[in-house]
Design goal:
Low-confidence stretches: none
Number of domains: 1
Helix content: 25-40%
Strand content: 25-35%
CATH architecture: Alpha-Beta Complex
Order of helices and strands: EEEEHEEEHHH
Largest sheet: 4 strands, mixed
Distance between the termini: 34 Å
Radius of gyration: 17 Å
Number of helices: 4
Structural class: alpha+beta
Mean pLDDT: 93
Oligomer: single chain
Length: 180
């Protein structure tokens, strides 16, 4: 610590996660309405999931898996939209948000548990921004993805390649699991 003091900290280790802003040719984004028990209601969210499938699954592969599982889509064009450290005061949980475009439909996935009751909604980006600013869309990942895409579009910003380094990608929990 500053001044040479030693401080003890508890850190919650996390697998890490990915999320996807899947934009169709009409400029709409695929979102899921999903019940979230800790909040006690359904939230409108981007497709997302954990990096927990086991050794060898890359963040991009996890994003592709989640897009297929949650909204029955695949994409030809992928870019990194933004990286997030979700609550660095107590956890190493980090998330990589991708932009997926040139979409095509897949056969419906079999959904289980909380995903069994999800519904897919297509939302125009401008509407998603309005819903975010009005407080209707509150999931932090979704808020970040929607506003990042709107900002990137407004500035005609070039996004990063999927091979771009992810500086804060959490690895400790996955490495410990994979050693077992």
């Amino acid at each position: 610590m500053p001044g040479g003091r030693v401080a003890e900290r508890e850190v919650v280790e996390h697998f890490g996660a990915v999320a996807v802003v899947a934009r169709d040719a009409r400029g709409r984004i695929a979102m899921v309405r999903q019940y979230r028990h800790p909040i006690g209601r359904r939230l409108l969210e981007l497709p997302a999931g954990l990096l927990d499938a086991g050794p060898g699954e890359t963040p991009l592969a996890a994003a592709q898996r989640e897009l297929a599982e949650e909204v029955d889509l695949a994409a030809e064009h992928w870019q990194v939209l933004v990286d997030l450290d979700l609550s660095p005061g107590f956890t190493d949980e980090a998330l990589r948000l991708y932009l997926a475009q040139d979409l095509r439909g897949l056969e419906a996935s079999e959904r289980h548990d909380e995903e069994a009751d999800m519904s897919v909604e297509w939302v125009a980006l401008e509407d998603a921004v309005s819903r975010t600013l009005s407080g209707e869309i509150v999931n932090a990942t979704s808020v970040a993805g929607i506003l990042a895409l709107a900002a990137a579009d407004a500035r005609a910003t070039s996004l990063r390649a999927v091979t771009a380094p992810w500086t804060d990608e959490p690895t400790a929990l996955r490495e410990r699991r994979d050693r077992r």
